[in-house]
Structures are given as C-alpha cells and as structure tokens.
Amino acid sequence: MNAVTTGIAQRIGGWFSKPSETVVAAEQAALRSDRFRLEREADWKRLDAILKRMEAGRTRGLSDEDLLALPALYRTAASSLSIARETSLDAALVSYLEALTQRAWFLVYGPRASLWSWFRGFLGGGWSASVRGLGIDLLIALALMVAGTVVGWLLVASNPEWYYSLVPGGFADERVPGASKEVLRGTLFGNQDQDGMSVFAASLFSNNAQVSILCFALGFAFGLPTMLLLIHNTALLGAMLWLYHGQGLLLDFVGWLSIHGTTELFAILLAGAAGIHVGRSMAFPGNLPVMDAAAAAGRRAAQVMTGVVLMLVIAALLEGFARQLVDSTPSRLIVGTFMLVMWTGYFFAFRRGVR
Fold it and tell me: Please, are residues 182 and 247 in contact by the beta-carbon 8 Å criterion?
C-alpha cells in the first residue's frame, strides 16, 4: 500500500509541476520580448513619428537629420521584424512591426507619382514614345491592314458570295450586293433620328474593340494569330468599300466612316503592332533570354494598349454623336482628316519624353 500511495503522490506531483514549467517558460519569453522592445523601441517610435508626418503631408517640416535617418530606421525596423519572427516573440509585437515596416516601405521605396501625375506623363510623351518604340512592327501591321482591305475587295469583286462570308450578318442588313443606290445612300445620310444607325454603330465599335484586344492578346503566339486577325478584319472593310463603290458612293462611304474610323482603325493598327511586337520579340529575342525580351516588349506594348483603350473611347464618342450630327460628306471628311492628322502628329511629331 505504501508503494502504491507513493506512486500516486508522484504522479499527482508531476501533474502540478508541468504548469509551473510552462509558466516559467512564458515568463522568460515575456522577459525576452520586453528586453527586445526596450533596446529598440526608441528607433521604432522615431520612425513612426516621421511616417506620421509624411503621411499627413508635412514632409517639409521634417529636419534633414530625420530625412537622412529614414532609410536606416526602416532597415532597423525590418531587421527587428525578422528577429521577432525567428525567435517567436509575442504576436502583438510582430503585428506592430509588420505594420510599421509596411508603412515605411511605401514611403521609402514605393511609387511616388500620383495617378494624375502618371496620367500627365503618359499623355505628355510616355504613350507616344512607346508607340514609336514599336518601330517596324507598325509598318508590318499597316501593310497587313492594307493587304486585308485589298484582298477583301478582290474576293467580293470576283464572287459577290464572298461578301456574306466576310461581312457579319449584323453589319449587312440592307447593305448587301444588289442593293440599289437609293437604299445604300439612305444608310449614309439623314439617319440622325434612326435607331438602326445607332445599333450598327454600336455593333461596329464592339467588333473593333474585340479585334483590338485580341490582336494584342494573341501576340504571344509569335504574332501569327494577330497578323491573320488584322487581315480578316480589314477584309470586311474592303468588302464594304467594294459594295459602295459599285453604286458610285465610295467617297460618301469613306466620309461616313472617317469621322470615327480614322481613330478606330488607328487603334486597331496600334493594337496589332503591339501584338506583333511581343510575338517578334519572342521569335527573335536577340542577345536577351526569350522571357526577358518578351517582358521588355510586353511593358511597352501594355502602355500602348492603355492608350488604345482611350482611343476606342474617343472613337465611340465620335461614333455616337459627331457622325450623327454631321450629315455631309465634305464636313465628315474634314473631321476624319483632322483626327488622323492629330493622332499622327501626336505619335510621330510630338517628341517630348522620348525614352
């Protein structure tokens, strides 16, 4: 009985001894955390005070010593965070240091340009410089678009049945081979109050927007799908030019199209060139690794595509308002020519911000 009693007593004693060891370990961890905090807290507080002033827009009130000390204080806080994580200090301290270093990183290394300043730089030369950086890819895309237009014209001229293959049903309506001159002329003039023209304009804009996006997105396949898409889309244009030419309305159709078309087709040209630029950089990376060449080309092409979106929005406004309000061919040609000259001048004559 004595042996049994002794064993039970030892077990019970063991149960009560474990919590005491846990308590001791917790006290030691808290002591390490307090000591760690006390040794470095002054630097953290100084960094926090500097960050608060900068975040409040009072940077000019900071002394030169504080500004010079900011990078060093950030590195100290980052080092403290690393040590706190490694040694498993208390969670509250780790959370505090994480928030502090994150705020400091954005002020020390983060972007300093606001959205407005970026936009000014983008329009002030960044976009045009990126477009010029496409170089020969612009000429390739332009040649493909011209070739597609010619191919579309020749196909429907040799066999009008090609028209139905090249022109989607939503574009055709009464614009089909065999339509009279009066019918075709009625699609170009006197339609300010007709919903049909708005539907056609929306369909045309939607098609061109999709083509622009696909031309860029498919560039990664060495640019081949982009080239085919440019040819196919402009073959539609060639087919419609042939249709109106057959009734002596070619100039009127060009004027009707030019109000928004010079902007929209220019956007497609840039999107196609951007896609070809990415594909060509992958096929012929030069001295760079393929991924590095593609990344560099992708950054330039992405900036071009940002501008393409802006051009498509402008084209939509011209399509929705200007084309309906301007109802004579000479006036339409003036508007379309002005837009073409404006875009060409901006991209190739405006040299501010060349990179």
Answer: no
Residue 296 neighbours by CB under 8 Å, 6+ apart:
281, 288
- CA atoms of 313 and 320, how far apart (whole Å): 11
**Range in 120-134, 155-169, 191-205 the model is least confident about:** 191-205
- CA dist 29 and 33 (Å) reads 6
Alpha helices in 159-223 (DSSP H): 162-166, 169-172, 181-186, 195-217
Q: How far apart are CA 188 and CA 10, in angstroms?
A: 103
The mean pLDDT of 35-54, rounded to a whole number, is 84
Q: What span, in angstroms and rounded, lies between the C-alpha atoms of 206 and 343?
A: 21
Integer Cα distance of 144 and 226 in angstroms: 10
For the segment 323-329, the average pLDDT, to the nearest whole number, is 80
Residue that wins the pLDDT comparison between 117 and 179:
179
Please check whether residue 166 is in contact with residue 156, taking contact to mean a CB–CB distance below 8 angstroms: yes
Specify the 3-state DSSP secondary structure of 88: coil
Q: Are 279 and 223 in contact (CB under 8 A)?
A: yes
What is this structure's pTM? 0.67
First to last CA, the chain: 94
Q: How many CB atoms lie within 10 A of CB 146?
A: 14
